[in-house]
Write a structure and sequence with these properties.
- This protein is mostly helical.
- The protein is built from four helices and no strands.
Length: about 100
């Protein structure tokens, strides 16, 4: 799925937007965390990277579509899911939506 995302983003932005190392790290997380854990870790990675990008762009440190490393965000997502556990994240998600 990460390779598909890489191909789609490369063709959409006409620039390299996701490296092969990012896709490999995401696939390795599937072995370690399982499918649910990988989805949660990637969600955390995308959200934190988006917040970081928004903050850096609003402060004038980044230009439009400027590249930055995504691997630290993937690593953070994997680490935080590994520490807290997949079930903790699922439980908090359902609690957030009132279920």
């Amino acid at each position: 799925s990460m390779m598909l995302l890489k191909k789609l983003s490369d063709s959409f932005f006409k620039a390299k937007s996701l490296g092969i190392g990012d896709a490999k790290l995401a696939s390795i997380s599937g072995i370690w965390l399982g499918l649910k854990g990988t989805y949660i870790a990637m969600s955390i990675a995308f959200i934190t990277a988006g917040l970081y990008s928004f903050f850096m762009r609003s402060k004038g440190y980044f230009k439009k579509l400027e590249a930055f490393a995504f691997t630290p965000f993937i690593s953070f997502g994997i680490f935080i899911v590994w520490i807290l556990g997949v079930d903790w994240w699922i439980q908090k998600w359902w609690y957030l939506w009132g279920a």
